[in-house]
Design a protein that fits this description.
Blueprint lengths: L6 H30 L3 H23 L3 H21 L5 H23 L5 H23 L7
Helix pairs in contact: 2-3, 2-5, 3-4, 3-5, 4-5
């Protein structure tokens, strides 16, 4: 006949099972939270980061650094795409920011197509347009409110 499991060993098994369950649940819930849990402050912070890259992009363009224009424009497009995914659909300010974010992405795609081998003046024109679109989008993002009001 087998001896019963000691209370200490039983408790260790239960604790281990609880830890494994918690780890599994966290692994499942954290990616979901990042998709649906973007708060207005998160969106606005993303907008601030987008503007910093947009300003850096144009500043480097003024210095003739085409590689930096392409790099920062890529970052602007990534920020804009992330904001688009996180925008609350019911918020009117979010709807107003939408075309400006799309324009920033479009202009940054033009910069990417031109590449870093062209004259900086050539890529600076769409970069400036991307910055202008990003500025307009950030104005609307600043007016976002929790709950889509």
């Amino acid at each position: 006949m087998k001896s019963p499991v000691s209370p200490e060993k039983g408790l260790n098994i239960v604790i281990t099972l609880i830890r494994m369950t918690c780890a599994l649940l966290l692994g499942l819930l954290l990616p979901v939270q990042s998709v649906i849990g973007a708060t207005v402050k998160d969106i606005q912070a993303q907008g601030t980061a987008m503007m910093k890259d947009a300003e850096d992009m144009v500043a480097h363009g003024g210095m003739g650094d085409t590689k930096a224009i392409v790099h920062h424009c890529s970052e602007v497009a990534q920020h804009a795409e992330a904001i688009l995914k996180a925008l609350p659909p019911a918020d009117s300010h979010g709807k107003e920011a939408l075309p400006h974010l799309q324009e920033a992405i479009k202009q940054c795609k033009r910069v990417a197509e031109l590449g870093d081998r062209v004259d900086p003046g050539v890529s600076l024109n769409p970069a400036i347009k991307a910055r202008a679109a990003a500025r307009e989008a950030v104005k609307h993002l600043a007016a976002l409110r929790e709950g889509g009001a």
